[in-house]
Amino acid sequence: MQKSTVLIVSFLLLLTTCLVASGKEYVLVCHKECPVDQLTHREVERIFLGKMRKWPDGSGIEIVVNSNEEVHALFTRDMLNKSPSQFSNYWRRILFSGKNILPVNVKSDVDAQSYLLEHTNALSYINVTNLNSTVKKILVVE
Amino acid sequence: MLKKEKCRIGMQRLIFSACLLCMLASHSSLWALDLTESFQIHGFTSQGYLNSSKNNFLSDSRGGTFEFTDVGLNANLSLHEELRIGGQLFYRNLGNYSEDQISIDWAMIDYQPFDFFGLKIGKVKMPIGLYNENRDSDFLQPMIFLPQSIYDETRRDTYLAYLGAGMYGNFTMGSSGDCSYHLFLGETDFPSDSVQLASLEDSAISQIIRNNTLPPNKQDPALPEFFDSVERKSDTLYGGALLYDSAVIRGLRLGASFLHAEFKTYVNDSAVQSGETTIHGKFVLSAEYSWRNLVFVSEYNETDRTATMFGKVSLDGPTQAWYGMINYTPFESWTFSVLYDEFYLLKHDKDGLSRLQGPPYTAWRKDFGIGVRWEINDFWVAKAEYHWIDGAAMKMAHFNPDGLARYWSYGAARISFAF
To answer: Is residue A125 one of the residues assigned to a domain?
Structure first.
């Protein structure tokens, strides 16, 4: 009786974890012709903090902040070690001190993918479940 | 100015601020005025209340004042991915300081062909310490006032921005992290209502009066008989900053910045300079560490300077300043801060024993402060803080002509809107 209870609880926990993971996992995406296939974690961090502004071929990187709640917080915490609020204030400090303009901001995965379709150098992140063949997935390595 | 008239103007400003806050609040998106992908307009406004006990702080604050308003509006145009022009207008009302003035906060051409190399030409925020470049955007800081020992509001005009050229960039150090640098050369401008200028005026007047009271055969003929005006001109100014972001210890930032500056003083529109202030070297060492929902910050500063007026040395030697601050964010929108801040006018005379221009306690200022910041949403921020102070250094005499108290305190509250 106890064994079966443990098994059921374990199964439910595993199921919940899988559902949460599949629903909230993000993937880094760019235009199909963007010049990279993979980036290191540090490179992603430097790009989204405005420190690395060029692809290896010398063309400029255009970052696209996707404020879709399903992935935004997960992305900023996981990749940039910042909460969404810290990330927003980081860029506003840059803006109001005259160092740069704010990155492009979109509200959904659909908007992000639409933007990437028209901008060869743009880079964003979307929910993995919404990934389709119009954009290229970028692998993040350590 | 009559008290009634002053009150009326104060009320007008308050209504103006309230209207501006409401007007800006009608925008519903943080990125609302991104007119195109390459042209953006953003801005902010803050309305505060300042109250102090025993001493006035930056304004006539002892009875409480709403004359504590900031408004900023900036526009940026990216002509190319490597080339941008932009500028920010800034209005501040803080008592008689920066009153009714709209000034250019920064305005520049920015060209960055490589990550490791860029050029800025124009009026550019000076990179001193971790926070000087953001000193006008208090809504982005945990507390209303930055630690005054290093970010002294009365010296804002000296350290806000340089007019000239700067070279900057960012480079990776592999798995160790990355470094950014900013070197600059130029000058600064002093608005007519600068506290620094008012302080020079006080110094010139007192020396002229003292000279006039002497017997004729003992008077210094180099001094004018009367005072009419004072002007300060920036001569040489250069400096730089280095900032290291660690990848080994995530959340750790270390910084070092340096400044050298020379300013000349002219009394009564004289072609010959009457005085000079030389900042031989100002350096700030900085450390910031973010760990979970805590941020620890500490900075150390010394400013070695010599000031003369009519051939007499009024100040000579290095200041010493440091602070430690902890910011705790238990929830996403709430931050609680605690600060300890120390400043000494002369590093080698911390007790003020050689001080002639005032009581010994005008040689230091020790500040213990607590604050709370509430980020209401993406646009609105409310803050409040209270400080207990020992000492009256940093131009306090300018706001307290009737005398200074050693132990005093001040509190401030502010609401800001930014888009």
So the answer is: yes
Query: How many Å apart are CA A140 and CA A64, to the nearest integer?
Result: 17
Q: Looking at beta carbons, which residues of chain B come within 8 Å of A46?
A: 170, 172, 178
**Mean pLDDT, chain B, as a whole number?**
89
Query: How many contacts does A have with B, using Cβ atoms within 8 A?
Result: 87
Closest alpha carbon within chain A to B32? A105
Residues B367 and B384 sit within 8 Å (Cβ to Cβ): no
Q: Does residue A12 lie in a domain region?
A: no
pLDDT digits (tens, 9 = 90+) for B285-335: 999 999 989 999 999 999 999 999 888 888 899 999 999 999 999 988 999
Burial group, residue A114, by CB count within 10 angstroms (0-12, 13-18, 19+): middle
Mutation target for A interface from B170, B182, B289: give the one with most A CBs within 10 A.
B170
**Side by side, which strands form the sheet with A136-141?**
A38-40, A136-141, A26-30, A122-127, A62-66, A104-106
CATH code for the domain in which residue A91 is found: 3.40.190.10
Could you read off the pLDDT of B171-216 as tens digits, one per residue? Answer: 999 889 999 999 999 999 877 777 878 888 888 888 888 888 888 8
Domain that holds residue A45: 26-141
- Half-sphere exposure of B240 toward its Cβ, with a 13 Å CA cutoff? 8
ipTM for the whole complex? 0.88
Inter-chain residue contact A51 with B108, CB threshold 8 Å: no
A136 Cα to chain B: minimum distance (Å): 22
Please indicate, yes or no, if residue A80 is contained in any of the structural domains: yes
What pLDDT is recorded for position B15?
Answer: 54
To the nearest 10°, the Cα dihedral for A17, A18, A19, A24?
90
Main-chain phi, psi angles of B149, to 5 degrees:
-60, -35
B19 to each of A106, B22, B94, B349, how far by Cα in Å?
Answer: 30, 5, 19, 49
Identify the structural domains of chain B with CATH numbers, from first to last. Answer: 3-418 (2.40.160.10)
In a domain, A18, yes or no: no
Hunting for tokens 């200022």 — which residue is that? B365
The average pLDDT across A112-116 equals: 95
Q: In total, how many domains does chain A have? A: 1
Residues of chain B with C-beta less than 8 angstroms from the C-beta of A99: 110, 133
HSE at residue B97, side-chain half, CA atoms within 13 A, is: 25
| pLDDT at site B13 | 58
